[in-house]
Structures are given as C-alpha cells and as structure tokens.
Hints:
Blueprint: E1 3-4, H1 9-44, H2 49-80, E2 83-86, E3 90-95, E4 101-106, E5 110-116, H3 119-124, E6 126-133, E7 137-139, E8 143-145, E9 148-154, H4 155-175
Antiparallel strand pairs: 1-2, 2-3, 3-4, 5-6, 6-9, 7-8
Helix pairs in contact: 1-2
Amino acid sequence: MKKQLHVGVKWQFRFGVYATMLFVGLFFGWILGFAFVGASNELFDTSSVNTVILGIVSFIVFYIIIAIIIGEIYARMAYNRWFYEFTEEQLRIERGIIWKKYSNIPYERVQNVDITRGIIARICGFSTVNIQTAGLSYSPKGGINIEGYIPAVPIQEAEHIREFVMKKITKKGRNQGL
C-alpha cells in the first residue's frame, strides 16, 4: 500500500522555495526593481526620492507575495506526488511534479538505514529516512544522492521502517554463503 509523507513536510518544501526565491531575488531582482522604480516614476511623473522608495517597496512587497504563492503551490504539488511503499522484495518510491521519478530499491542492495531530524522536522514532528545502498545514485544536478531518501515520515514510523529494513537485510545476509 502506498503511503504519503508526513503533512509537516510541506513546510520543508516551502522553505526550500523561499530560499531559492531569496537567492534569485538577490541576484536578479535588481532588474525587476529598476522596472518598478521606473514605473513609479512614470505614474507619479517625478523622479524624487519618495517615488524611488515607493518603487523599491512595491517591488519587495510584490516579490514576497509571489514567493509565498509559488512556495504554497510547490509545497502542495510536491506533497501530493510523493509516495513510498515497502513490499516483500523492495522499497518503491514515486516522486516528481513535472518529471516523475520511480525508484525500486531491492533489500539485498541496502547497506544501512539512517534516521535524521533537522530543525524543521523536530518542530513539525517527522523524521527523514535515508536508506543507503551498495551503489549510490549520481545526479548531474546535485552530485551523489541517497537512493532511498524518504524526507518525512512520522517519528514512530521511521523507527518501524528502520527495524523492518534491517531485519530484511540481516535475514538475507544470513542465507548467503561465501
């Protein structure tokens, strides 16, 4: 049965978008800022300091509103499209908004299971489960990735997942000979 992530992960997704928007705003926002300043100069037909300040403030307010809207849309879409399922043979992960990614991780490739809780996770009450495999996944965008990455599960379920997977891999390891 497919399971969804913990609802609190939406905050983690939102903060990721906000950080990206802050980065983009700092490096490319000045272009739009000049447009807002120019528009306020044209609207009020003067080029005083007050119209420049009005243009900058209106740009900042506009940018914050856009960042909040984009963050909310992304958080909801990412949450509604993130699923994981533990079967008898493997872990299945399905994620992605525009490009869907389907991962199947057989238990025989699993090396270790780590549970982490960052500050947002502790506040919202969830854990991140990292299932490390024998062969790491490499992504040109982000370098080395953990294949079995489940970003938000309830704390008790994370412990249950670790116990379940560790039993699966120790059971498989005992049946193999040299």
